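Troubleshooting entry. Yesterday's outputs looked truncated, so today I'm pasting the complete records for two proteins to confirm everything comes through intact. If either block looks cut off, that's the bug. Protein one:
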Amino acid sequence: MMALSLFKDLPAVLLEVTMCLLIIACYLFGHGLCLRLIKQNPDNVNKELGAISGTLLGLLGLLLAFTFGMANARYDDRRKLIVAEANDISTVILRTDIYPDSIAHLLKEKLKTYVDARINFYAAGIDKEKVKNYFLEADSISKDIWHTAANYAKKDPITTKSSELIPALNAMMDITTIRREAGEANIPDSIMYFLLVLCCCSAFLLGYGNHTQVDWVMLAGFTIMLSITVLTIIDLDRPRSGMINMDSTNKYMIELRQMFNPLK
């Protein structure tokens, strides 16, 4: 059984609300501690705190940029792999036409089922059990297609047909594993936890550096913008759910069904 990941499995809205509350709580705690120390000793004001806060905020900005870049790069890789897989499958479908009609029709029937399984693999969303089942279903169908093509190649003395289809079929099968690995390659939890801790520490120091009343407008703006930025990073890293997904790219897989329209 896989361990629960805070940033991969929990709803994005829950993470957003929790982060907002944590930032506000850390800011108010720092502000309250500052006022308490000043009340005990009016001269107890750290004049270097501004430089420390600025350094920490700079580090936070750097980590946000690094994490966002990592999430965006992985999102782009996943998108390219979907397009590449659609191209690989379409190549296999087209090259079945070089076979006799009986074999070509059989291969296309199996490829049609394979395409449906690959479409369902994405449509399963965050349901890990369905994702696994559709992956295994497609894997089983692809092996059946491979055996069909291999058996015909053994009987056919002319190797031209097989030399065209087999490499394309091999590429179609290989990319499923690459795509699965890319889908499971998320930003390490250690980086996300460090980012969360850095957000809380920055909020604490900002509150501690405020010797006057709380500016709720500033606090709300800081909290909302920071939490939305982190939420966007999380959303990019979870393309199977959320507002940033692969639906527009997955249409290329769905369009493959049109290549089977002549089938009766």
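Protein two, checking that the full record survives here as well:
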Amino acid sequence: MYRTFAYREAVLRICCSHFDIVAAEIVRQRHLLEDYLRRHPEFQRSLVPTEAHADAPEIARHMAWAAGLVGVGPMAGVAGAMAQWAAKAAIAAGAEEAVVDNGGDIYLQAVQPVVVSLGTGTSRLADRLAFRVEPEDTPLSICSSSGKMGHSMSLGRCDLATVVAKDAALADAAATQAANLVRTPEDIDPALERIMAIRDVSGVLIVQDDRIGLAGRLP
């Protein structure tokens, strides 16, 4: 059963027996990251890869690593990173299963199949797409970005860009980049090629208008 946890602007859906640990880890990591951003505001503002300073918390270092692979600013991976850190905290505490959905950026460790719906906004494919994730394929991250939905910054007009990878910060950053690259259906194929060239990306799905593009290994 999914429960909702809201903290500041974030609203997360969580399925885990250790819900309190997941929630506490989100708050803890947010505090660590926000303290770092106050000391180094350029890390938050940058739209290009930026190295983490020596005083950076582990999560900020990880975001910087993912951003460097993808070619975006480090905050492009923040939602995925938070989901991963929270889920891993629950697993470390003894939970067998954890699914953390941070605004469409998902990290999951499962013991039974999980169906992940993909929202495409006003596209004719809306509410018709989903992945079925098998337990043996987890831990896994499925992160999505859009130039038409949500509050996150996007430089494109993509209906939906979804990236699958083992690492959630990487999947989140790559989904952001994919959405940045797409404004028309003709942009889909070049964007697929560019995202699949990123190390450790398993697969990518892009929806623009009534066209859908797929590449790599998807659930």
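Both blocks look complete. Sanity check on protein two: The first strand starts at residue 3 and ends at 7.
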